[in-house]
Write a structure and sequence with these properties.
Length: about 230
């Protein structure tokens, strides 16, 4: 079981740094843990968010019918009872994909009060200034003005968002750079090695600025720094 302390520690690092670290320490290939760039932060000022995925399939675009919210309400109850930060991972399944409006500031306030720090969806969202004020992080394809009746026919099942397969309770980390899924077996090592990756990047970037070294010399120094910080393959 992931601890609150571990999630809070992970929030101290930016997403790209953690992704770089995973690339060296994890057996999971990179394409299985980072999300497509089409899913972008609309609330970058909030900074990194990390939590356990709460998954849902949502239809906000199909005309007609009536709202279906019972499963969503029950899911929020479970979020509140969990007492760990969560992130709402939403795959849109409506008949008009370009008209999916997943979240506004009203839903953001309800979700946040249940311990959910943000939404990550392949649809669109609205009321971004209101979400920012909650503060509720929004990761999506862009903004949209309205929606059809909100239907949530499925929760807690696997979803695909931004080309990434996500299951309920997966550890998700996101910031203005993008979204990653952290393999649970790598959490402890990731927390330990991320500061070393930060130091490695600092030293390497300072060296790459130098004008007294030829390009080939710089790459030789990169290999030396990898060895020094324990990331040599």
């Amino acid at each position: 079981m992931t601890s609150l302390d571990a999630l809070q520690e992970l929030r101290e690092f930016d997403t790209a740094l953690l992704a770089n670290t995973l690339g060296y320490i994890s057996a999971v290939p990179a394409h299985e843990f980072y999300m497509a760039g089409s899913i972008r932060s609309l609330t970058p000022e909030i900074g990194p968010v990390v939590g356990l995925a709460q998954t849902a399939k949502v239809d906000t675009s199909t005309p007609g019918g009536a709202p279906e919210l019972n499963l969503f309400i029950a899911q929020q109850e479970r979020m509140a009872d969990m007492q760990l930060p969560s992130l709402w991972l939403v795959e849109t399944v409506g008949s008009r994909p370009e008209h999916e409006c997943v979240t506004g500031d009203g839903m953001a306030k309800s979700l946040f009060s249940a311990g959910c720090l943000g939404v990550i969806t392949d649809g669109y969202c609205r009321d971004i200034a209101g979400c920012q004020s909650v503060p509720f992080a929004v990761y999506c394809r862009g903004t949209i003005a309205h929606h059809a009746p909100l239907r949530i026919p499925e929760v807690d099942s696997p979803v695909e968002v931004g080309g990434l397969q996500v299951e309920s309770l997966n550890i998700i980390h996101a910031d203005r750079e993008g979204v990653i899924k952290i393999p649970p077996d790598d959490v402890a090592t990731l927390i330990k090695r991320a500061p070393q990756m930060r130091a490695f990047e600092h030293d390497v970037h300072a060296m790459l600025r130098r004008t007294d070294l030829r390009p080939r010399e710089k790459y030789e120094h990169v290999a030396e720094f990898l060895q020094h910080y324990g990331f040599a393959r």
